[in-house]
Write a structure and sequence with these properties.
By secondary structure, this protein is mainly alpha-helical. The protein has one domain (about 1-10, about 20-90). It is about 35% helix and about 5% strand. It has two helices and two strands, in the order E-H-E-H. Helix 1 packs parallel to helix 2 (about 85-90).
C-alpha cells in the first residue's frame, strides 16, 4: 500500500480539503496516528509492503495542482520535514 500526507498550504486558494491549511505538524501527527493503525491492519491481513508517497517535494510546485507538489517527507532542498524522524521510527516498527 502507499500512504502520504500533503503539507500544502492553501494561501487563500479555495478550500478543497477539509483540514487545510495542512502543515508539517499535521503531517507528523498523521504519521504517528495512521502508521500504527496501518501496522495493525498489516499484521491482521498479511500486508507485506508499505511505502510513503513521496520522499521529496517537487522543486517547482505546480500552481495548478499544488497539493501534489507537497507530499514529500523532505523539502525540495532535501532538508527533512518535522515528521521525517517519526516516519523513520514508525517504519522501523514494521519489522
Amino acid at each position: 500500500m502507499e500512504t502520504g500526507y500533503t503539507t500544502y498550504y492553501s494561501g487563500g486558494a479555495p478550500l478543497v480539503w477539509a483540514d487545510i491549511p495542512h502543515t508539517e505538524n499535521k503531517q507528523r501527527n498523521f504519521i504517528n496516528s495512521a502508521l500504527p493503525a496501518i501496522r495493525q491492519k498489516a499484521q491482521q491481513h498479511n500486508l507485506v509492503f508499505v511505502t510513503w508517497y513521496e520522499l521529496v517535494d517537487e522543486p517547482n510546485a505546480n500552481p495548478i495542482v499544488p497539493a501534489e507538489s507537497e507530499f514529500g517527507i523532505c523539502k525540495s532542498d532535501l532538508s527533512p520535514k518535522f515528521g521525517y524522524n517519526d516516519l523513520k521510527y514508525q517504519f522501523s516498527l514494521f519489522g
